[in-house]
Structure formats: C-alpha cells, structure tokens
Amino acid sequence: MALFTLAEARAELARLRPALDEIVTCRADAAELAAVLAGGPPSPLGGLPEWKAAAARLDDLMTEVQQTGAELKSLAPLLVDFPGELDDGTPILLCWLEGEPALTWYHRRDLGFAGRRRLP
Fold this sequence. Notes:
120 residues; five-stranded antiparallel beta sheet; 5 strands; elongated
C-alpha cells in the first residue's frame, strides 16, 4: 500500500476534484433514474438505458479514484481516505468528506471515522 504525505494527498485530492464532482452528479442521476425504474414518476433524465450508463460511469469514476491509491470509503456522502503515517509512524488515513473545502482531517486506521481529528 502506497502512503501519502499530507502534501501528496492534498495534491491528489485537487487532481481528483473533477472526478469527485462528477461522482456526485452521477450519483444523483443514478438515484433519480433508479426511482423511475422502481415505479416512480418519469424523469427528464430517461429510463433504463440512462440508468445503465450512469451506473457504468460511476464505476469508471470510482475505479479512477481507487487507482491513485486513495480509498473510496463511501459514495453517499462521498468519503475518500489517503493512507499515511503520523510522525511517530502511527498508521492513519487522511480523510476528506464531501462538502469539505480542503483535506484537514485524519483518523487512525484502527479507529475509523469515529476517531476523526483535525490535522495539527
């Protein structure tokens, strides 16, 4: 597993932002189209072919994120972790959550999201 420094993780997050923004849009489209397929009201987005296309695009985007070494932990809300270490060697995940303007949080690998803390 590749480890990211804070600077590397922030640079990778900036590079991934267009893909992450597209994930949010695709996720919403797929949810709306799934509601249509479940018998909900029609959508201007379409039906089954458009849902299949949105699902395929989501898969491609998620693969793009994961190929960087980042970990896509949640799709809704979007949560991306970058493996790293504290100065003392403690394994951490640098943690970005949808809606946050920058990468400013981390948590120990063994604690998960509940152990999330602001970076010093």
